[in-house]
Amino acid sequence: MSHTSDPDVPVPDGQDRLPQSDVTRLGEMFSYRSIVFVILCTAGLAIGVAYAFGIPIAGQRLLEGQYYWVFIGLFVAAAYIALPAVKGQTTLPVYDIAAAAVVLGICFWFSTHAWDILQAGWVNIPAGVVLWLLMLEVARRSGGLPFLLVVLLLGLYPIIADRFPGLLMGIPYSFDRMIEAHVFRTEGMMGITTKIVAEIILGFLVFAGVLIATGAGEFFINLANAGFGKYRGGPAKVSIVASGFFGSLSGSIFSNIAGTGSITIPTMKRVGYPPHYAGAIEACASTGGVVMPPVMGAIAFVMAITIGVDYATVMVAAILPSLLFYFGLILQVDAYAARKGLTGMTQDKLPSARQVLIQGWPFLSVLIFLVWGLLYMRWEYYAPWYACVMMVALSFLRRDTMMTPRRMFETLRQIGILVTQTAAIILPIAFVVSALTITGVTGSVTSGLVALGGDNVYLIIALGVLACFIMGMAGLAIVAYIFLAVTLAPAIIKIGGLNEVAVHFFIIYYAMLSVITPPVGAAAFLAATIAGAKPMKTSFTAMRLGVVIYFVPLFFLFQPALVMQGDLTPLIYVLPSIIVGIILLSGGLEGYLLGVGLVRPILRVPLAAAGFAFSFPGLSTTLVGGAVSALIVAVIWMDNRKRDATRNPGVAE
């Protein structure tokens, strides 16, 4: 899979295309489809800026409901222009033009009644049903049949809520009342899901589009090459670093794989990494990018709203877990390279770090500005808009990045694709949120989990992990998080007295992990397609490489200092033990211990188990794991000394 959208269309120097263009049918840059799409998206962005900054339109500021309806109408209409009904469809059929016109007309009509909807309960059920059906089709086009089934079946749950047994029983609703709640009320489309896309993450999506359109993707890959390319297994380390940066900007696992993977996977294969291993590395690195500050994915913004904290708190909380994950991933690819004798790239094939920084300092400056705005100035959702203005201004410092009319059009198209696809995924989730809210099932599920767990927090956590995996298997991490945040999280917090931020991050991590975990492993399967490898083999390898991300959530669940919550003193002794434990664990999994040497097959599992025990934030497990680890490391060290002595009899002893 290529990360370019239209291979026959020339791309201005220094400009990257967003990988999301792959799944659209916009065609050439100035095709009529692109022009209509850009007009709709530009109008949506202009309305978004006006609402965010309180700019009057026609002499008055937009009401929240007015803005939401206009936003939905413009970007859902854009989705019908851009997203094909069937895979491979390149034309724009009449029925899609009609669908775009209908959704635009209905939403603009509803926007004129925004005040009546809020104050007087105004509804129009027939038009609401039409909009509901059109939103379901958008869900199918953006997330596939599994996503449609989740949204449809859970959305219809209120009709038969009283027929379910036990904790799944809820308050029943007639079809008309269900549509009213789904479409017109704050429990549904006028609530949290639209707020997330239209207010909270809109600026970040625009920022990502501007940054990448001006060459950030190429810059981060070059920067990673300059920093890590010369070391053993260099291309794999480049993939990890570049995907971490790119994923944080795009907030999408799959676009990350398509964007950086189409460059890094072939490079990894050329230096000796097997196809399945190269694909697994990219899948893991891209998955971690979604929880890598400063931007992260939409799910982080959902979490901020759900628990009522500012985004800066979420961003800071994500720093240590994401760094630990990438540390473990780099250690494993380094161990594999050492065991297989894979070298890095020669210096003549690598860019100059000095030259890369000279050319790319605007990108780093803008990222620093964004972090400063989020953490110090507390600008929250205004920060990315300011960063966009700064990036556009800095783009004029170089001829190959300046915003010419052509590049501005392409940038708007890329931003439109990001926003449209995000809206097409998140907006239909309103029906799931509405169904869970109006039936009252969330409270019964919480109490049921507490009862099922028998007041045992460990059993409830185990049930939660299972639920996260099952719900996340279709790649619907946001749906899984929203459901579990209102059902599982209260149960864990109530029984275990655990930190709220840590519990919610725990759910995010495990809901997200299903994209690399068999039997579904959608992210690993996509990377396998690019690598030309077997999907299941790639998925199992990704599971092994991403092992740190499987157990780190357990660590910060019981030690909230790892997510910067509460007393941070424990970090003094917990963090070093986790780092050493990850080194030991990686050595056991890959058969090469950093600084010691090769690990015999018989010692690999014991070393990995001892490393896990040593890293677990508990005194008894750390002491036992440390003692066992010291013994195993001593044996490994002696093995390697004997091996060296055999190879070089004149050196040792």
Report the C-alpha radius of gyration, rounded: 25 Å
Could you give the count of β-strands?
A: 2
Strand order of the largest sheet: 1-2
> Total number of helical segments?
28
Which series of helices and strands comes N to C?
HHHHHHHHHHHHHHHHHHHHHHHHHHEEHH
Cα(first) to Cα(last) distance is: 54 Å
Q: Helices and strands: which structural class?
A: mainly alpha
Instruction: Catalogue the unreliable spans.
Output: 1-22
- What characteristic shape results from the CA principal axes? globular
Mean pLDDT: 85
The percentage helix is over 70%
Major sheet: 2 strands, antiparallel
Q: Roughly what fraction of the amino acids lie in strands?
A: under 5%
Characterize the structure shown.
The structure is a single chain. The chain is globular. The longest helix is centred in the N-terminal third of the chain and has 32 residues. The N terminus is likely disordered. 70% of the residues lie in helices and 1% in strands. The chain has a two-stranded antiparallel sheet with strand order 1-2. Among the domains are: 151 residues, no CATH class; 76 residues, no CATH class. It is mostly helical and 653 residues long.
